[in-house]
Task: inverse folding
């Protein structure tokens, strides 16, 4: 697994440094620059937050996910101001709940998606969401490293698969996921018959499941 | 709560997806969460849907954040205590916690109201236009013949019922839309308790039921 900060003494994880841009700051550190557009090991970053309250790690997660949570909330019908606020609250929840993140059970993006989703329900719908019982795992079983790695690889494959979906299918899956629309409402919006929508979504999900192995 | 019997009738993809993305109303979410607590297949399906949601989030186009938004988040964090544990007090119950939260305990704690012919119901308090209620159907008894304006989801918690479609046992879900005109009958041997959720009032066939329907609130 990629370790980003292994060999760096982390001077900016102290409090009071949050107003310093990580990238500006890290730029002076020589070859260990954390590139803006590079895909980081999000799971590793979450663990660094959970174990060491690492602000640099958090800044990277923030840079990637906050603008995407905002976009998710705007697609769900929030205006820009509300989406900005909710995205900030969701990111604060990510920090606060980081200790509950278990890489053997969900990838970072899946876990963050569920936090954003719950924020959407709280803020936009203001309703209660009944949750399934947690599965209880026997304590003596150590979460296997390979399991976490496998889950991570699966989610990368899944993200690739989504990017490679034919445009029409990707749009439908996005609509089904991000907008407040049922299949029949998507049918109204796109003018496609309900049967076609359902089979396209099913086809897209089949492909995605297949990609997940 | 875990079921030894194999569950045969599951949630639809539409319900699972809407539960995943947070657009499902409270009453239907209650039924979905209760079923998932009993069904490993649908739990696995939910987890794949959530993974799809995560991947979509990961590859979606970003929306620019405000200039000082990171600092605002750090301020939010500073002003609220860190959550280290999440231990919720659970009351021992014979139903999943999603449901026991609504009935305040176990099946025996439900406050029933008779609606005729030995059938009893208990309305659950949920927001929105959909209605969630528990039905108690004595063994061998039929629920009055009815059709639907909208969608109806029935989840068996105890016992079993049969209708024109199939036999439904503990954990099974029957999904009915306006095209289905059915008469569920609790099978002999055990009284049947189920969670029934509708997004529109039921239409009962007989005149007398039409008359009393507004008072029964079903
Ligand atoms: Zn199921």
Result:
């Amino acid at each position: 697994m990629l370790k980003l900060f292994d060999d760096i003494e982390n001077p900016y994880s102290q409090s009071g440094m949050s107003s310093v841009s990580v990238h500006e700051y890290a730029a002076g550190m020589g070859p260990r620059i954390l590139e803006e557009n590079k895909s980081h090991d999000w799971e590793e970053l979450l663990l660094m937050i959970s174990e060491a309250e690492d602000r640099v790690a958090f800044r990277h997660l923030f840079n990637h996910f906050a603008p995407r949570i905002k976009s998710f909330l705007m697609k769900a019908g929030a205006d820009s101001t509300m989406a900005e606020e909710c995205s900030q609250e969701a990111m604060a929840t990510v920090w606060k709940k980081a200790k509950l993140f278990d890489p053997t059970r969900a990838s970072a993006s899946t876990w963050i998606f569920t936090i954003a989703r719950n924020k959407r329900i709280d803020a936009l719908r203001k309703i209660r969401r009944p949750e399934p019982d947690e599965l209880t795992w026997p304590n003596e079983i150590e979460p296997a490293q390979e399991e976490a790695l496998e889950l991570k690889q699966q989610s990368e494959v899944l993200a690739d698969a989504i990017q490679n979906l034919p445009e029409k299918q990707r749009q439908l899956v996005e609509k089904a996921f991000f907008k407040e629309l049922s299949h029949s409402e998507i049918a109204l919006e796109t003018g496609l018959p309900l049967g076609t929508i359902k089979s396209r979504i099913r086809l897209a999900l089949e492909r995605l499941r297949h990609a997940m192995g | 709560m875990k079921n030894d019997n194999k569950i045969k009738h599951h949630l639809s993809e539409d319900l699972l997806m809407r539960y995943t993305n947070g657009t499902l109303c409270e009453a239907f979410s209650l039924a979905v969460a209760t079923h998932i607590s009993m069904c490993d297949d649908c739990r696995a399906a939910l987890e794949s849907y959530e993974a799809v949601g995560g991947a979509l989030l990961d590859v979606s186009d970003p929306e620019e954040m405000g200039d000082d938004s990171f600092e605002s988040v750090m301020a939010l964090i500073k002003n609220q205590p860190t959550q280290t544990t999440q231990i919720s007090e659970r009351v021992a119950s014979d139903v999943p916690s999603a449901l026991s939260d609504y009935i305040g305990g176990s099946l025996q704690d439900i406050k029933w109201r008779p609606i005729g012919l030995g059938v009893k119901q208990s309305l659950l308090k949920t927001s929105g236009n959909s209605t969630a209620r528990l039905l108690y159907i004595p063994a061998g008894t039929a629920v009055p013949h009815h059709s639907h304006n909208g969608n109806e989801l029935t989840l068996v918690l105890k016992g079993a019922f049969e209708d024109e479609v199939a036999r439904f046992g503990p954990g099974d879900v029957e999904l009915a839309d306006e095209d289905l005109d059915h008469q569920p009958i609790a099978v002999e041997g055990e009284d049947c308790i189920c969670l029934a959720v509708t997004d529109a009032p039921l239409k009962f066939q007989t005149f007398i039921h039409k008359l009393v329907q507004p008072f029964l609130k079903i």
